[in-house]
Amino acid sequence: MQFEKHVRVRQEKFGAVVFETLSEKLFVTNETGARILRLLEERKSVDAVAADLSRVYRKEPVGIREEVQEFVQKLQTNGIMMKEPQE
Amino acid sequence: MTHDPTQAAPAAAIAGTSYSDFDAPLFVAWQLNSACNLSCLHCCEEVGDHLFSDELTPEEVTFFLKQIVDLRIPYVAISGGEPLLHPRFFEISSFLRAHGTSLKVETNGLLIDRQVANRIGALGFRSVQVSVDGSTPQTFRMMRPNGDWEKVVEACDHLVAAGVTTEIVFVPSKFNIHETGDVIEMAYRMGTYGFYTGKIMRIGRAARNWDLLCPTETEYEKFFDVLKEKQTKYDGKMKIYYYPYDVVEELRYRLDCPAASLLVIPNGKVKLIGPLPFVCADLRRHSLSEAWQRYKRAWREPEVVTFAKRVVEDPRLLGEANKWVELYPGC
Fold this sequence. Notes:
Oligomer: heterodimer
Order of helices and strands of chain B: EHEHEHEHHEHEHHHEHEEEHHE
Largest sheet of chain B: 11 strands, mixed
Shape of chain B: globular
Low-confidence stretches of chain A: none
């Protein structure tokens, strides 16, 4: 999974800010979202992100995976992440 | 810390998060130089007759660039003057791009030939905005005396051919407002990414020429009708952006919600916002991080709030925008 070309992500005290500079749209997220974004920047898969969150937050990975997937879909819908070719 | 990633879903906008929450600016508008090869009637920066004798030195520019990268400022817009006249334009652009900064350049296009367009294309700018204030050379020259419309159109063609995200910027005035639709059609034929416009700003030379330039309300009504019509026509084919508010309305809004951005003028002074004369920092004396803290503080200064409110009451005061006032002299 890759971020769109003109997207920039910056970690902040409150979480992270995502700047889609082509449309000049800003998105903000909390610390959990910031962690997900950091892992996605490292090209981690949804499964790997879910496993990380499961370990950090001591929750069952199954539910977390769905939530991460939903988060990623929102990023794609908002033009922040590229859609996978098969989607 | 929440354990629920659904709460981490991106908000629809920046609403709810104030500029003061950010550790550093999100955007830097950098007027790189004051030199210009034109002398446009509506120039906000009054270049040509407002030349800086104390522009940042090469060493100071390098230090500034490093700070932009260190603070992870995501987005920088370079303008002038005419930025392509700056001897280090490509060096500066390359540095920012090499560090992943999104970069927009605002130019009059006169110095862009095929070779320059290809160099720009190779750097992967966010976009290049070219000012095209008319669909005919005659109209164009009324706004931009000695401007070469054919050359500017050619520059856009070169940029598009080089794969550069090219945006046309159109400033409406009494001289050209009737050509708005034609310029949009031209922008589409040229294959540009987008068309940007909004009401002319009463700043700089435009303030001095206000009666000559400012369209009537009726002309603006037609203008916005044309924009809406073209936006529908080119939906999904070309972006048509227009800002419906004038600079006074913008200022009124910014008093409550300052932007998370800094405006740096060629001598390294940091202005609060284009329409106000206030300078809150000097990059020769302050780090970019300090400038950001001073900017946040400055918006709450009674002097700023009072003056901005006066401007809202009497827009003629916008003519003072380039008579800089140091908010913290000597500090």
